[in-house]
Amino acid sequence: MTGTTIRLQGCRKAFSDGTVAVDDLNLTIEAGETLAILGPSGCGKTTTLRMIAGLERPDVGQIFFADSDVTRLPIERRDVGMVFQNYALFPNLDVAGNIVYGLKIRGLSPAERNKRCAELLELVGLQDHGKRRIHELSGGQRQRVALARALAPRPRVLLLDEPLAALDAQLRERLRSELDQLLRSLRITSVFVTHDQGEAMALGDRILVMERGRVAQMATPRDIYQQPANAFVASFVGNLNAFPVIEPTAHGLKVSGGELPWKGIPVPKTVYCRPEHLRVMDGAGHVRGRLVGQFFQGAQSRLLVDIGAEQPLLVDSADGVIHATGALIALAIEPHVLFTLHS
Known about the structure:
With 343 residues, this protein is of the alpha+beta class. The protein has helices at residues 45-53, 95-105, 110-123, 139-151, 169-186, 197-203, 221-226, 231-236; strands spanning 6-14, 20-29, 34-38, 60-65, 68-69, 80-83, 157-161, 189-194, 206-211, 214-219, 241-244, 247-248, 252-255, 258-261, 270-273, 279-281, 287-296, 301-306, 313-317, 328-332.
């Protein structure tokens, strides 16, 4: 399979109650790319996916697959495959029947359908499950069948709506890795909607973060996390520590609890960092505070440190030390991990 470039130009979609779901959306999804659309409820991510699919038509704007304008084409003429959160499998058909259903409608011969079904069962690791009934399958197996059915007609574009949301955490983690390998091997253009930041980070070549129907930022997972475009993106993707600046000093910035290293100009009102950027020190650090909580998280512990600011600092520490509540904690930070944000 090969990918198809998708372009949305000036797309706007409002509903009958006046709600604007998508507003002046412009984006390009490269051929063979996996794009994760991430954002809070009501931000327009599902409407965007449905417009790409042809299940919704933009009030204004155009949608292109490669050089073809598909804005007014229904879903059955767009050559897309879809995987839904609830699988949408046919309970009266067995696994093979579900996979070849679309091929049968397209008029493929039984021999062609059987060959394609065997290929897909192997692809998703269900070689011995063709005759199983849907109710006999686990949640993960049903999701694989739904994926195989979507891929059966060799679509130009694969669309996934919260594909792993219905699974338990352990299975979701395993299928996330399998889905990533599968999409990369197929090199099919894929767009998936998710509310799970970890899922978006793991699967997306790029992430589109949406806010109120618009693009808040579209970038690689690393850039979204390390160089967020604004305060909304930074706070929505990962955890964030904020240091309101009291005044500049000879060596940096005075903040609650101490002094941060900073050489930037002009002096910001607030600087930020991620929890893993703060290091617990035996002696002196850049800031000091009292431990108000410590939570074991397996490979690391999450510390809450009160430095006298509005919110305690979040500190992710892998040193394995158990600190007493109320203990004085010294924290150091490298200057290059501090950043500022636009509102």
